[in-house]
Design a protein that fits this description.
heterodimer; A: alpha/beta; Rossmann fold; 2 domains; six-stranded mixed β-sheet; 9 helices; 24% helix; B: two-stranded antiparallel ribbon; 67% helix; globular
Chain lengths: 447, 289
């Protein structure tokens, strides 16, 4: 009990959909409802339902009977598909919305970081925004004064601190916003998808800072779609599905389970709605798939077999030379490699508008076992421009068989390292003993 | 079990004095949570300060608007009501008579308008961070004080121009200013909470303020009414404020009398009911935006 930071007990949250999803009601509707409601209640009474709310058909439970305890100093990731209830859960924990049923006990000051830059005003200077943002996040003025220089230094905006932030580049803006939030020192820190924005260097900085926060012994709740960040930061993961807890345990195990579950659907991502698809007015991403040699889409690959990363895209404007590429990160967030288009057919040639499918093959005997995350991007040169970059577009698992034909040889335990190329080994016996190839094959596994 | 308490802060949950916060669904009326608001007083300060800074950074004439608005209205009213309609003014020069009423009225009307829209304007903030929501409309009202000071300076200049010196009753000025604050915060709380639920409110406000202005003795004196009726007139909180301003600054012969107490009571009722209504609706704000 003494070690408890967060206790969530039988938490439920209901939203209304249909009539009032995001739209606000108008006076007219309410007035009409005022006349209709008593009538309906009467009908309900007649039907023997008592005074139960009549509008149950519009209601939907975003969080269903969620319970868990988090000890002080734990770093817990919350993962799940869109609509699994992650954000709603965090909104309840950070007091933005109320639970419908159940109870949450928070031991200590809570700082929530639901979106970087919330409350920044473009007309105010960097200095003014730091003060305002700090007040919004609940920092005291002396605290801000004390950490002011540190915040500015972390954000690397010393020179522009008295310039209105509307003149900032988006990178500066993000750095400043994160810097303020990162210097907040609550006992419980709630973070939602902050890392979804910003360039790689910035993301790295954020992750580093969050690792620091965790090391100081504070409790961190971290919601993200970025599985690399989750596995790197969190020792424990709570997997949500359809509003309920689907799993709670060690991060690696849960991330793998999430990725390999059929609903995780990591082997294929398709963007049916062209408006929401990543891209520009020149080229748009349609789909990303991973395919085995035999052409099936798969998210499991034998460590010895190649795997194709298929990028389907639509060229909308003529006159461009495209450079499709993809990158592979492992679950520790290590960028293993990036692959550029090596097919000479379209090199330095404009592609006419239409649909294209480019597939890059990752050779077998290259990656180590585990979850791999594929990001895809589309570049044009002169000027250098990235039309889309979809990180973690798909993910796949590299699995090794224990039939001793792979790079693990006869080694039964885990093989550390970022990659696992198949290195050819030779052993000569100095005493002149020779074993024929056939004998090797037939030898029993004597470990 | 009926849970009527939304948040309870139980200090000393452990030996290390870690505060415990329990979140539960709320039912019915809430406490005002003034303690919570007090803890966030710095946020209130910064929100005011932001409102003021941003307002004057974005407008070309800046602070001059606070003087131009009452000045122009005064000139118009003096022409139409003073010169043409020959409206009585309790023996005070008509322009000064109008301006003395316009200064608190504009403070009230701007405060109501700003605070009514404040929650919707700050929707992105309300959806992302917790803080006592009462701070948002309150900050709008307090930010209006800067405008008030400017227009009040104009009023003093006008008084000097007409050579009118206030009587000892001027010590009551803070009381009437407080009354204006209470009235505008009360109405602002009602309207801001209603505005989240019914966006129609946004369209109603300009019309409401116009009607209210003519229902308030700005262009005419309340002495047009005979006594029992004049006290009833005080149910409009701004009647007491406006007549109070005239009484303390211009020394109008007719002291406002019981009307002021009616206005004060009416403002308090509006403020208290507004605050409770606001708190009751508060829990649904982030879900509705």
């Amino acid at each position: 009990m003494a070690n408890l930071a967060v206790r969530v007990e039988n938490l439920w949250k209901q939203y209304r959909v249909g009539r009032q999803p995001e739209r606000y009601s108008t006076l007219r509707d309410t007035m009409a409802g005022m006349f209709r409601a008593p009538l309906r209640r009467m009908q309900g009474l007649m039907a023997g339902q008592g005074t139960v709310s009549s509008a149950s058909d519009d209601q939907f439970w975003a969080v269903k009977d969620v319970s868990f305890d988090i000890r002080r100093g734990e770093v817990v990731g919350i993962i799940g598909r869109n609509g699994a209830g992650k954000s709603t859960l965090l909104k309840i924990l950070s007091r933005i919305t109320e639970p419908t049923r159940g109870q949450v006990s928070l031991y200590g000051r809570v700082g929530s970081l639901l979106e970087v830059g919330t409350g920044f005003h473009p007309e105010l200077t960097g200095r003014e925004n730091i003060q305002l943002n700090a007040a919004i996040l609940g920092m005291k003025r002396e605290e801000v004064a004390e950490k002011f220089d540190e915040i500015v230094a972390f954000a690397e905006v010393e020179k522009f601190i008295d310039t209105p932030v509307k003149h900032y580049s988006s990178g500066m803006y993000l750095r400043l916003a994160f810097a303020v939030a990162a210097h907040l020192e609550p006992e419980i820190l709630i973070v939602d998808e902050v890392l979804a924005v910003g360039d790689a260097a910035f993301q790295k900085k954020c992750l580093g800072k969050m690792e620091g926060v965790a090391k100081e012994g504070r409790t961190v709740l971290f919601v993200s779609h970025n599985m690399q960040a989750v596995t790197r930061l969190c020792e424990r993961v709570i997997l949500l599905d359809a509003g309920g807890v689907a799993g709670d345990g060690p991060a690696g195990q849960l991330v793998t389970r999430y990725l390999s579950s059929s609903d995780g659907n990591t082997k294929m991502r398709e963007w049916d709605d062209p408006v929401r698809a990543p891209g520009s007015d020149v080229v748009r991403l349609c789909a990303v798939r991973t395919r085995a040699e035999d052409g099936h889409t798969t998210d499991l690959v034998d460590i010895r077999k190649p795997l194709g990363v298929e990028i389907e895209y639509e060229v909308l404007k003529p006159g461009h030379v495209f450079h499709p590429c993809f990158s592979v990160h492992n679950s520790e967030g290590v960028h293993l490699f990036s692959a550029q288009d090596t097919d000479g057919t379209w090199r330095r040639r404009h592609r006419p508008p239409g649909r294209y499918v480019s597939t890059g093959w990752i050779p077998g005997d290259l990656l180590n076992e585990g979850a791999m995350f594929v990001g895809v991007a589309m570049w044009t040169l002169n000027p250098e421009h990235c039309h889309f970059y979809e990180r973690d577009a798909v993910a796949f698992h590299v699995v090794d068989s224990y039939d001793e034909e792979s790079a693990r040889g006869g080694w039964p335990f885990s093989v550390p390292g970022a990659i696992r190329p198949f290195c050819k080994w030779e052993t000569q016996s100095e005493s002149g003993v020779s074993i024929s190839r056939e004998e090797v094959r037939q030898a029993p596994c004597n470990r | 079990m009926e849970q009527t308490v939304k948040l309870e802060a139980v200090a000393g949950a452990t030996a290390e004095q870690i505060p415990l916060l329990v979140l539960r669904p709320s039912r019915g009326w809430q406490q005002l949570g003034l303690k919570d608001l007090w803890q966030y007083r710095e946020l209130l300060y910064f929100l005011c300060w932001r409102d003021i800074k941003v307002r004057y950074k974005q407008t070309a004439l800046g602070i001059a608007w606070a003087i131009l608005q009452p000045l122009m209205t005064m000139i118009l009213f003096s022409l139409f009501f003073g010169k043409l309609a020959k409206m009585p003014s309790d023996g005070i020069p008509y322009p000064l008579f109008v301006l003395t009423a316009l200064v608190p009225w504009m403070f009230f009307a701007n405060g109501v308008t700003q605070s009514a829209g404040s929650l919707v304007e700050n929707a992105s903030l309300l959806k992302k961070v917790y803080f006592p929501r009462l701070a948002v409309p309150m900050a709008s009202i307090i930010a209006g004080c800067v405008d008030f000071v400017c227009s009040f300076a104009l009023l003093i200049i006008m008084m000097l121009f007409y050579g009118i010196v206030p009587s000892a009753a001027v010590v009551w000025l803070p009381f009437f200013l407080a009354l204006a604050c209470i009235a505008s915060l009360g109405v602002g709380l009602w309207l801001s909470a209603l505005n989240v639920q019914f966006r129609d409110v946004r369209y109603v406000i300009p019309f409401l303020m116009q009607l209210w202005m003519f229902a308030t003795p700005i262009a005419y004196p309340s002495s047009l009414l005979s006594e029992p009726l004049r006290t009833v007139y005080g149910l409009n909180p701004m009647v007491g404020v406006v007549e109070g301003f005239r009484w303390v600054l211009l020394g109008t012969a007719t002291s406002p009398g019981p009307m002021v107490w009616v206005s004060a009571a009416a403002s308090l009722v509006v403020l208290i009911t507004g605050a409770f209504y606001f708190r009751r609706m508060e829990v649904t704000f982030s879900d509705r935006m």
